[in-house]
Amino acid sequence: MSLINLLIAKLRNLVRAEQEDVDFDHELESHLKLSEERYIREGLDPDEARRRARRDLGGVAQLREAGREARGLARLDSLRLDVRLGLRMLRRSWGLTLVGGLAMAVAIGIATTMFMYFDVFWNSSVPLEDGDSVVSIQIWDSSDSRRRETSLADFQQWSESIRTLDDVGAFRTVERVLEAADGSIEPIQVAELTPSGLRIARVDPLLGRPILDDDARPDRQRVALLGYDLWQARFAADPAVVGTTLDLDGTVHTVIGVMPEHFGFPVNHNIWTALDPESGGYLPAPFLGGAFGRLAPGVSIEQAEGEFGGIGLVPSTIPADSEVRRQIRILPYVQNFIADVSPEEMGRRGVIQWIVVLLVSLLLIPPCINVAVLVYARTVSRQEEVAVRTALGASRSRIVVQLLIEMLMLSTGAALTALVGIRVMSLYLEQFMLQRLTRLPFWVDLSFSASTLTFALGLAVSAALIAGLIPAMQSTGRLVRPGLQALASRTRIQLGLSWKLLVVTQVALSFAVLPVAAETIWGTLGPYIEGPGIPVAEYLTARVAPAASIGEPADSIDFGSRLDDLVTELEAASPGSRITLSSALLSGGGAWAELEGADHEDFSLVMRIDDHFLETMGTEVLAGRAFDTDDFGTASNAVLVNRTFADRMLGGANPVGTRVRYHLGGRVADSSTPEPWYEIVGVVSDVPANPNFGTIYRPSEYGEFSPAVLIQHVPGDSAGARRALGAAAGNQTLGLAVDEIEGLQQIYTANAVGNYLAAFVLVVAITSVLLLSSAGIYALMAFTVSQRRREIGIRAALGANSGRLLAGVLGRACVLVGAGGMIGTILASALSYYIPAEAFGGWEIPGILPLAAAVMLGISALAVAGPARRALNVGPSEALNEG
Asked: Is the pTM of this model over 0.70?
């Protein structure tokens, strides 16, 4: 107990260290006065009495340090002093703190965000009772390594036959129009869920009752469950909401209950209706639909997968040419909502994700090296201080630790800044998702976990070591003797080769990355700054796929005829509107394309369109011709390309009459089975304007591709058209699955927001690089001027003019900047040739290399302006007095 009490007392003294120092000084002063009075009584004069009293007491500073050690914990007390000194030095070197901290914060923020992404989206588990037993059921097509839609016919078969799962559920997300009592409409995403879905979740409603099996029958009154947030926002948390009605796409639904707060199963839903598993159709892609279940007690995923393999798929739902290539696989529920990954790749995902995090974390090295340049300059300027401390007995490790703690203060501040930025962006993402009528998956928690905070702290420690270790070791190693000599002879310490190499390196990196970054930023922002070129607010979109009834052979479905019926119905509901169908919305499948006779390939988009696409989208024919009737035959090899394709592939020359081919799975040169050659018959304008990639359009008739994107141009009020699309989504007699109903304005705005965010990150990153580069040049010049003040003053006294003085001062900086600029220009040229910005969405900027060089020279000039002005203001008498 005595040891514990002693420890508590020392910790208490450590907390109130300043007051303890004051009290200790008062005790010393009292002791000195008593000793002085004794010597005075012995007959000595006051001055001699004071001298002898101080001699008897010994060194006051040593006594104060010994008292601190006796009162507190020596190492903690030393750490506290180091932290205070580090904070004081960072406050004095505010330029280094701001510039270096910004660069570190950007790198730490990017790496921590990537870590959070993998931790939250890849490693999360579904927060339900016994959530690890909830699994997803996928149909995997090994022919092209991607998931296929699940038919409700297959789901019905599994529900009746499977034994390794306690229950099987299914859902699909549809967009409905919620009409208020005042006639206003609001689009809202609804989960059509089988009654078994809530049984699998094992979550009871907060109010009312769950969806029951009878609620899914077509002859029963439609019912709806409300999410907690919707209940709070729209119904003011009124408990009497149970039993009221909702109007969804003109169909009245009775509210039967309210789900608890934070419940969003299956993904992020806030309203649920009953899905009839016998209604036919398909479950769309992940996040919009799927099948799931709960493992029976003691059953593994492998055992369940084996039973599903024995049951197989309903033969009528499998196209004849792909029956043997489709398999059923079971995987943990959350993994279903990750990008398509083959079973083999899924097993390696853990290793891959950490490799990615490691590679992204390496982005911390360049800014830390740049910070090391600035720290090195400052430690050299403080070399006399370090030399004196060493001569007075301070160990090398003690000084190194103090300098490293100073850098740790900087990197910790940068990490905290990065975490604040990530949190702000997370809140912004959540609000943006809500504006997009959806939310993040309910299992995603964007607050910081212990692992995320530990990772960020680890990056801060690594940054401190990288930025501070080399300068600390240099200043306490080979530079100590020169520091003592400089102190004795009043000469100046010279910067070594390490400093010069670091300056050249950071200037070269700035020259190299500036052109690529500028082209990427412009390519990211350009399309949205210049606008889409079409009135996107007048367009509605929806995804359409065939909905086969149970027992109906898939090959017998006349998708084209069903699409015709849908288009006729929509046009009747909105006279004057135009409707077109394409294989994708404003962007198609990514493919590498090559022109006949050309020696290079370019990444392009491929879209299949009907004969109304150009007219509906307001696309102009710029050269050649549009598609004619003959082009829509099965033997046609005609294609159209947009203006961007012609510019990127032929530098703007007319490609009409040229043949092109492409490959969806990679480069054409690496493929043994590329697409056949197609003839370019015309060039059309870009839709939307200013795209990042060229586009190839292929003619297709209704029903030749599935699913299809329906695009409806509705000039004026689109409320009626949206209601008609919602009604079509709920009309099972059409034999179509209509979902993802959305305005083109929303999609375009969402893409713009994402691009603006990416551009902002790039701007911050490149700004930090440029600031560090200019700060390094400034530090070089400031150090040179401070070291040569006496020389400058003598030369000025001897009659040297301003030009000669500047040439002498700036010469070294110009040589280093010039060397870095030459190396950086070579690197930039190599990057633009081997990794062109256009390959990942950038836009070429004519003359970017000389423009980047001019920018860097301007930054360098600004960096040397201050030190150069101080050099010219050095007076001869002032400089001589310093010597």
From this structure: no
Quote the strand ranges of 666-707, DSSP E: 678-684, 694-699
Structure confidence at residue 554 (pLDDT): 46
More confidently predicted of 18 and 402: 402
Tokens at 433, concatenated? 């998702």
Residue 178: strand, helix, or coil: strand
Provide the CA 24 distance to its chain's centre, in angstroms. 54
- pLDDT for res 735: 75
pLDDT of amino acid 204: 92
Domain ranges, ordered by start, for the chain = 2-72, 73-128+347-494, 143-341, 536-751
Contact 660, 674 (CB under 8 A): no
Which DSSP state fits 278?
T
**C-alpha distance from residue 7 to each of 2, 17, 762 (Å):** 9, 15, 51
Please state, in angstroms and rounded to a whole number, the distance separating the CA atoms of residues 657 and 650. Answer: 13
Higher pLDDT, 295 or 782: 295
Higher local confidence (pLDDT), 683 or 422: 683
Rg (CA), the chain: 36
Alpha carbon of 324 to those of 142, 321, 665: distances in Å? 9, 8, 21
- The total of other beta-carbon atoms located within 10 Å of residue 420's CB is 12
DSSP 538: G
Residue 877: per-residue pLDDT: 59
Q: How many CB atoms lie within 10 A of CB 612?
A: 16
Q: Measured between alpha carbons, how far is residue 513 from residues 137, 373, 517 in Å?
A: 45, 19, 6
Are 291 and 137 in contact by the 8 Å Cβ rule? The answer is: yes
Residue percentage of the chain with pLDDT more than 70: 67
In terms of average pLDDT, the best of 70-84, 559-573, 745-759 is: 559-573
* Nearest C-alpha neighbor of 288 from the set 737, 726, 749, 745: 737
Q: Which two tokens stand for residue 618?
A: 């307001």
Does residue 307 contact residue 295 with C-beta atoms inside 8 Å?
no
Question: In angstroms, what CA-CA distances link 580 with 278, 320, 489, 616, 734?
Answer: 31, 29, 86, 6, 18
What was the pLDDT predicted at 499? 63
With contact defined as beta carbons under 8 Å apart, do 292 and 333 qualify? yes
Q: Reduce the DSSP state of residue 677 to 3 states and report it.
A: coil
Closest CA to 531 of 754, 842, 748, 755: 748
